[in-house]
Amino acid sequence: MRAIRVSAFGGPEVLTLTDVPDPQPGPGQVRVRIHAAGVNPVETYIRSGAYASKPPLPYTPGSDGAGVLDAVGPDVTGLVPGDRVYLAGPMHASTGTYAELTVNDARNVHTLPPALSFAQGAAVGVPCSTAWRALFQKAGATAGETVLIHGGSGAVGTAAIQLARAAGLTVVATAGSAKGLSLLTSLGAHHAIDHSQPDYRDAIKAAAPGGPNVVIEMLANVNLAHDAELLAPRGRIVVVGSRGSLDFLPRLLMAKEASVVGMMLPNMTADEWRTVSVGVRAALADGSLTPIVGRELPLAEAATAHEAVLAGGAHGKIVLVP
Q1: How many angstroms separate the first and last alpha carbons of the chain?
Q2: 46 — phi, psi (to 5°)?
Q3: In whole angstroms, what is the distance from residue 135 CA to residue 175 CA?
Q4: Which of 49, 203, 242, 316 has the fewest beta carbons closer than 10 A?
Q5: Are residues 134 and 257 located together in one domain of the fold?
């Protein structure tokens, strides 16, 4: 089969398309013929060697994907060859989805709803799991509260908007382009704010006069101090992403008795994964969550995808098509 391989940590140029042996499922595992593979920022950090946990070299990147079940190992029930499926679960369990075939534990392979395309299925795993965990497991968001979603037009943000709206929250979301703002509105955000404007924080204050109860933060090194100023008393900030350090005044949190919590999917327990998986699957099934795909690229253009996923102006998920 063809797969993207990384033989040395470095820039996007280390992503090489090559032929490798077909992986074989073991006990409790299944093999999926990938029709679309999701690209996530975390995969760029791992590829560069900057991530805390590094896979042994060489390796095939990717944890998100969707396709057709190709083979089933011993001790697998409930899944049969020919099933349309998507992958979502612990990232270390997969042989890598940037490939024509991947093997994963059966518990991380889920039936893809008929209404969703393979590309949309590839947009479920990390983004939707992150959004659900941030909102409900980490922030404990409840109906009637207000949530501020920074970077709402990206893959995590678009999922968070839909999940928050379905749960009865008032949604304030930001984006940096007219296209992004239009997307926020179409997904149900009550207030869509252009964070490229110098006065955008005033617009947030106008949209949420008492301050947001919850902030889902994708770029904490830029926004965390501002989030703390905007936050409602006893509010919660969930740090989903950060690309650097910042100068921060803790008294901003003390005065409001506010909380800041970080999250990373690899830290989740098996029980937490089960809860997230059930929540995401229910939202997909009832139509309250529809993954947004912004761009599809051939598998051979993985390097381009890695550059694009870190660029500004996100508009849904980037997927690779073998």
Answers
A1: 10
A2: -65, -45
A3: 19
A4: 49
A5: yes
d(CA 40, CA 46): 10
| Contact by Cβ (8 Å): 127, 291 | yes
Answer yes or no: is 270 within a domain. Answer: no
Is the domain of 143 the same as that of 200?
A: yes
In the chain, how many H helices and how many E strands? 10, 15
- The answer as to whether 231 is a domain residue is yes
Residues 74-133: pLDDT tens digits?
999 999 999 999 999 876 546 899 999 999 999 999 999 999 999 999 999 999 999 999
Check: CB of residue 155 under 8 Å from CB of residue 137.
Answer: no
| φ, ψ of residue 264 in degrees (nearest 5) | -145, 130
Tokens at residue 271, please?
């029980």
pLDDT digits 0-9 by tens, 213-270: 999 999 888 888 999 999 999 999 999 988 888 888 889 899 999 999 999 998 999 9
Helix residue ranges, H only, the chain: 41-48, 118-121, 125-132, 155-166, 178-186, 200-207, 220-230, 251-256, 270-286, 302-309
Q: What is the DSSP letter of 121?
A: H
* Alpha carbon distance 107, 35 (integer Å): 20
Task: Provide the domain limits for residue 181.
Answer: 127-265
